[in-house]
Design a protein that fits this description.
The complex is a heterodimer of chains A (175) and B (471). Chain A is mainly α. Chain A is 66% helix and 3% strand. Chain A has a two-stranded antiparallel ribbon. In chain A, helix 2 packs across helix 6. Chain B is α/β, with parallel strands linked by helices and 471 residues long. In chain B, the strands form three sheets. In chain B, strands 1, 2, 3, 4, 8, 9, 10, 11, 13, 14 and 15 form an eleven-stranded mixed beta sheet that branches. In chain B, strands 5-12 form a two-stranded parallel sheet. Chain B has a two-stranded antiparallel sheet with strand order 6-7. In chain B, helix 12 crosses helix 13. The longest helix of chain B has 26 residues. The radius of gyration of chain B is 27 Å and the shape is globular. The termini of chain B are far apart. The chains are: A mainly alpha (175), B alpha/beta (471). Chains A and B meet through helix 1, helix 2, helix 3, helix 4 and helix 5 of A and helix 1, helix 2, helix 3, helix 7 and helix 14 of B.
């Protein structure tokens, strides 16, 4: 849903469009959250990085230009940068406190199962290149389609499809 | 492609997390219309440039008599104006080309209730007496003394110029006004302090109504305001922004100079033995930069440098430390932009950890990582003195006293300047000022952005005179 800003109407500035940020938040939060789960291969720091991504986006939302691309592309670019900063900052001797556990949906058994799957995925994707890990996170964490992934990564859509097919086959064989 | 084993690993974010984050975002102001303002400026300059070029080319072949039309001479000396087109019939659609003989009245503004004066101007008399009336010809001060204020041009919204440090506060107020259908949100423009004040002082009615800055206006700037017709400039403090470096209470006392803070956090630092060369920051231990004895890893958790507190860290502590190097002083004179870029960029190699906006998480990280340092707004640290201890900076510990008397380097006063006549004539200007003053006067408002409410006497509005600006 796109709303015209009351501010723009009365400010006499060139009219711009203001998005329905609540709807965007509801739509994008699970995507960003799962993107980080898949990207990091663990639950630790996921909430913090998700929060950081949204805070940056919210603070800079006036800078977002609809004509330059989809909101999700913009948001995932921020998420990618936040993730890379985080990974760069990780040092073996720096104990980062895990984000406090908050009640999550689902049963503890299901959470444990998902958690162990995530750990298994992390072990398997550790041998992949950065780009391949990013593709997996965007496809299965963020649930983006190949076209959106192609836009984000600069690859062609067919290249994204082929690479993902190969990656999934490889992961399934070792699962 | 059987990828179900990957798809089933997705899960919904925990509702408490989603709710807390949404609540934080709802209170997070959008801080930047900088790029759009910049774009507008560039487009305007390009259009202006093209128009100028076209005009310059075309006027070469125009007889001088025609050019005289554009000479700034008295009306009687100018060529007679072309006859106005006949008035449109009353029942026809108004012709927009018809130029009214009289200046259009500003009904939208005039019909608004008279704004509450920002303050009674008790110092108006002294303002007049402060202004020199006879000065040596040719001297800086001999430029014309401000005459009557040009009539403010009615505008749809107040025009606020704000420095980077103050923009988040201005944006929050503007957003608040935008939510009220009865109010008029302000047009915001982000400039640095110098440019904001230069723009503000460029004239009266059609120039910015309000300037928000992180430093006080100077005497030459105020004189420039007066010369350009902005006669009555009001000043009010909107608070003090204070940033604190803190460690876990169990850590030994940390004493840092601003120079050490710069050396620890800057992206580039002077090369050892040759301060004229700047290199990528190689320091990883506090001991390497002579800050503290022993071997302690540099690890600083802080907010994004784009955030208000991050900006205060950079502008107050890192930048100040950078300026303590003599070669930087030279660079500041020869290339201020290069100097600013050098002094205000924070290292991105992981030793400064951008930890987002959640202060509680940051505090827990500091407490669980011995020797690490966190960057906090003062209010947050002050409420947790039982678990955090603040670094002493340039031999001054952050305290209510050292902040109030200006000796603590991590604090700065934020100022609001407004043109008295614009507050009366520009819709929304007075409301913006009133709301900003009300909000910042409340204890705890904008505290997460590092703002401390001004003291009672600091909240008073001053009609500025030169005497006020004497050191």
């Amino acid at each position: 849903m796109i709303l015209e800003s009351a501010a723009d109407r009365s400010m006499g500035w060139p009219r711009s469009r203001e998005r329905d940020w609540d709807a965007l938040y509801a739509d994008q939060l699970p995507r960003i959250y799962n993107y980080f789960r898949f990207r990091l291969g663990s639950e630790a720091d996921v909430e913090e990085l998700t929060a950081r991504t949204f805070e940056r986006a919210w603070r800079g939302r006036e800078r977002y230009r609809q004509d330059l691309g989809a909101f999700s592309t913009w948001l995932f670019t921020i998420a990618h940068n936040v993730g890379m900063d985080h990974l760069r900052a990780q040092r073996p001797h720096v104990p980062l406190e895990a984000v406090p556990d908050l009640a999550s949906e689902g049963t503890p058994e299901k959470d444990a199962e998902r958690g162990s799957d995530l750990e298994r995925l992390a072990r398997l994707t550790a041998e992949l290149s950065e780009r391949d890990r990013e593709l997996i996170a965007l496809k299965y964490g963020a649930a983006l389609n190949n076209r959106a992934i192609a836009k984000l990564t600069g690859l062609t859509e067919s290249n994204v499809g082929t690479t993902l097919h190969r990656l999934v086959q490889r992961l399934r064989e070792r699962w | 492609m059987n990828d179900e084993f990957l798809n089933r690993m997705r899960k919904e974010p925990p509702p408490p997390f989603a709710g807390n984050l949404k609540s934080r975002l709802d209170h997070l102001p959008a801080t930047s219309r900088r790029s759009s303002a910049l774009r507008s400026t560039i487009v305007a300059l390009l259009i202006g440039g093209v128009a100028f070029a076209v005009t310059a080319v075309s006027v070469r072949g125009v007889p001088s008599s025609l050019l005289n039309l554009f000479n700034p001479e008295p009306p009687e000396a100018a060529a007679p104006a072309a006859p106005a087109p006949p008035p449109a019939a009353s029942d026809s659609v108004p012709d927009e080309r018809v130029i009214p003989d009289q200046e259009p009245s500003p009904p939208a503004v005039a019909q608004l209730p008279a704004p509450t004066p920002l303050a009674s101007p008790p110092m108006a008399e002294s303002t007049k007496s402060d202004r020199p009336t006879k000065l040596p010809p040719g001297s800086f001060e001999s430029m014309p003394i401000p005459g009557p204020m040009p009539r403010a041009i009615p505008r749809a919204a107040a025009h606020v110029v704000a420095s980077r440090a103050t923009l988040p506060f201005a944006a929050a107020i503007s957003d608040q006004l935008a939510r009220n259908p009865q109010s008029r949100p302000a047009k915001l423009e982000s400039l640095d302090d110098d440019r904001a004040l230069r723009s503000f002082c460029s004239g009266g009615g059609s120039f910015p109504d309000i300037a928000l800055t992180s430093r006080r206006i100077t005497v030459p700037e105020l004189q420039s305001c007066w010369r350009n017709g902005a006669n009555s400039v009001q000043e009010v403090q909107i608070g003090r922004q204070v940033v604190v470096l803190a460690q876990s209470i169990s850590s030994p006392e940390l004493k840092l100079s601003t120079r050490a803070i710069f050396l620890a956090l800057s992206r580039r630092i002077p090369q050892a033995g040759d301060a004229t060369r700047f290199i990528s920051n190689p320091a990883t231990m506090w001991q390497q930069i002579g800050a503290i004895p022993g071997y302690q890893q540099i690890q600083v958790f802080g907010p994004s440098v784009d955030s208000p507190v991050g900006n205060a860290l950079v502008e107050l502590l890192v930048d100040r430390g950078c300026r303590s190097f003599a070669p930087v002083q030279g660079l500041l004179r020869s290339d201020p932009e290069a100097a600013a870029s050098l002094c205000r960029s924070v290292r991105a190699d992981g030793l400064y950890v951008d930890s987002g906006e959640n202060l509680d998480i940051m505090a827990r990280k500091v407490q669980s990582s011995p020797g690490s340092v966190g960057v906090f707004p003062y209010f947050y640290f002050d409420a947790r003195r039982d678990s955090l201890t603040a670094a002493i900076v340039d031999d001054v510990a952050p305290s209510a006293e050292s902040i109030a008397n200006g000796t603590y380097p991590g604090a700065r006063v934020l100022y609001l300047y407004a043109k008295e006549s614009n507050l009366r004539s520009v819709a929304g200007a007075n409301e913006f000022v009133r709301l900003l003053r009300e909000t910042t006067s409340r204890r705890g408002a904008f505290a997460e952005m590092g703002l401390l409410a001004p003291l009672e006497f600091e909240r008073r509005v001053k009609l500025l005179t030169l005497q006020d600006l004497q050191p």
